[in-house]
Here is the input.
Amino acid sequence: MKSEKMIVAGAVFSFCAAFSALGVSTVAEGKLNAGCEAVWMWYPGEYGIWRGNKLQFERLQWGAELAPFWPSYGFNPVAEFSATFDLAEPEEVEMVADGTLNVNVNRKDCAAVLGKLILPKGRVEIKARVANNVRPPALFVNGKTVKSGEGWRVGWWQKDAQTLPAEFDAKFTCAEKKPGDWKLNHERAEPVEVRRLDGCALFADFGRESYGYLALEDVTGKGAVRVVFAESEKEALDEKPKAPQDCMEWVSLAAKDAKNAEILWDKARGFRYVSVWPVEGDLSIGRVAMERELPRSPRRGAFRCSDERVNQIWDVAADTLELTCREIFVEGIKRDHWVWSGDVVQALLMNYYLTGDWEGCRDTLWCVRGKDPVVTHLNSILDYSFFWYDAVATHILYSGDKLFAEAVHPRMESLIRFIESRLDKHGRPAARNGDWVFIDWAPQKLHNTGGVCAFEMMLLARAYEAMGNGEWEERRLAAHPWGTGNGEWEMEKRGAILRDEVMRLFWDEGKGGLMHLLKNDGTLDSQLTRYPNIFGIKWNYFDEGQKSNVVERILLNDAVMKIQTPYMRFYELEALAALGLQEKVLSEIKSYWGGMLDEGATSFWELYNTSEKGDAHLAMYGRPYGKSLCHAWGASPIYLLGRYFLGVEPTAPGYAEYVVKPNLGGLEWMEGKVPTPLGDIEVTVSNGTVTVKGNSGKGTLIWNGERMPIPPRYSP
Here is the structure.
C-alpha cells in the first residue's frame, strides 16, 4: 500500500502561535503583539477554585444544600500584576479591573483616567494591584502593542518574590465582559410528557437527562409545594408525604397570592423527571418547563463507524460527558455534584478527544487540588492524591500549557510533602489517621488497615514520576533502602524504587500476576484482583513473559472477580487496547455500555451490574435511588475509541509531535476527528486505506508495520 494514497493534508490553522517546547520563564516580559487579542487575567487557580466552590456547595440532599466534607479554600482578595515592555513610542492603553485598581509605572503611582493610561516611550515597568472581596481579582489591559495575557506575572502582595505567570482564558477578550460574570448559555425546554396523578400536582418527563433551571408556570394561589428532581420515573413518583426519605433531591417552593405567575428556581439541577407535590395551601401549577443549560464547549471530536450500536454508544457517552462538564467538571449531575480527583483523571482524558476544552480541564485540576496548607488527601482519599499527579502530567502533554506547568509546580511540591508525611517507615503508602483507601466500588473489601496495596504503591510511583518529568519506564534503577544516601532522592528515582519494590514484594510467579495486599507481617494476602495488574500493563511494569501471564491468567480469566464500575472498566479496557486486543475491547463496549442502553439509559451510569434487574439498577449505598445515572466516568468509550481505534496520541506537549496508529478492531470502516491545540486531526479508515488530515505538528502514521510522515495542515 503506497503512503501517498494513505495520507491527505489539510489546510487551516488559527492559533496566534504554536508551542514548540515547554520552556518556562521567571522574567515578566510582556507581549508586544498586536496580532493577539488582550484577555482578562488573574492569579492561577483562583477562578477554578471559586467556580468549583459555587457549584459544589449547591449539591442537594434531602431538601438541604450540602457542601463537600473535605477542606474548601477561598480566593485571595488582592492580586498584583506586573510586566515590563520596551516601547518604541508612547502608547495609550485601556486598563480595566474587576475590583479596585492601583497602578504603578516605573515605580511611580499613577491613575488610569476613565480607564485609559498613557505609557511613556522606552523601558516601562507596570505593576497593577487589584483588590476584590466578592470574586477573584482580575485585570484587562489593551493597547496597540501592550496587552494583558502571556508575559504577565502575578503575586499576592507587593513584595511577593514568588510570582507566577498570570492565568487567562481565551474566551474572555472583551473589557465589558468580566470573567466573574460568565455563565453557561441556556435555552427553553418543554417536557415530552406531563401527567397529573392522585396526590401529585404535576409529573413531567423531559425525555432525557438534562441540566438546568426548573420553571413552574401559571402558578396561582397561596401555599407551598415540594418539587422532586429525579433521574428515574420510579423515584419521581415515590414521594412520601411530608417525609421524603428515599427521594434524595427535592426543594420546597412557596408563593403568596400568586396570579398566573412563574417561579424559576435559581439553582441549576440535573434531572430527567420532576414531580410536584402539594404541601400546604391551595397552590395551583399550570405547566412546568426548564431553562436547559447548553454544553460549555463545542463538540469538536467525532467518531462514526460501520457498527450503528457503537455509534449510539459514542453519542450517549458524549451527551453524558457534556452534562457533567459544567463551569467545573463534576462527578454526576444529580448525586454527587462534587469534583472528585479519580473522576477528574478520566473526564479530562475524555475531553481531550471530545471538546479540546483545555481551560475547563485546567480549572478543574485547580479546583480538585485546592490550596495550601494541605491537611488531608484530596477528597480525603489516598489514591485520589496520587491520581491528581497523573492528571496534571497528562494535561500538560495534551494541552502544551507551559504557563500552567510552571504555575502548578509549587502545589505539586507541597502536596508531595504532605503525602510523604503519611508514608510508613518503609516509604510505602498505608492508611493512616483515617485516610480513605478507595480503589473501586466492589463486592469484596479491597483494603484494610493491616497492610499496603500494590495498587497504591503503583499510583504513588506514578506521582513521583510526574514530579520527575522524565521517561521513567525506560530507566530502571536498582532498588535501595528507603531514605538512605545523601539528601533527598530525586523524584524519578523514588518512583523507580517503588516500581522495583512492587515487583519484588507483590509478584507471584505461581499465580502469574501481582497480588493485591502485603500484610504488616510481610506476607502476601491470598486475594488476587485485576487492579494492580491492569496498571502494571498501563505503566509498563512487566516483561513480555509476565505480560502474557497477566493477560491470560487474570485479565481474560472470568474466575478473577470482574469489575462492575465504568471507573475501573475504563482502565481494564485501556490495558487490553494497549496490547492490541481491540476486538475484545469493542465486544466489551457493546456488551457493557450497550447493556445500559437496553435498560433505557439516556446517559451512562456510575455502576452497571448485568445481574441486576429492574429497580435494582437504581439502588446504591443502601439507598433505593442512590446510584448516579449520569456519571462522568461512564463516558469512557469516547477516549477508548479516539485513542485506541482512531489511534491518535500526542508524543510531545501540545501535539507538537504525535502519532496516528489506527486499529479497526473488527469494524469494516471508521472515521473521526480529534481536537488538538494546533487544529483538529481527522482520520478515516476504509477499504484498506487510511486518510489522515493532520494538524500543524509533526505527525507520524503507523499502519501495517510502516511509519510514514503526516504532512502538516499549517506551516508557520
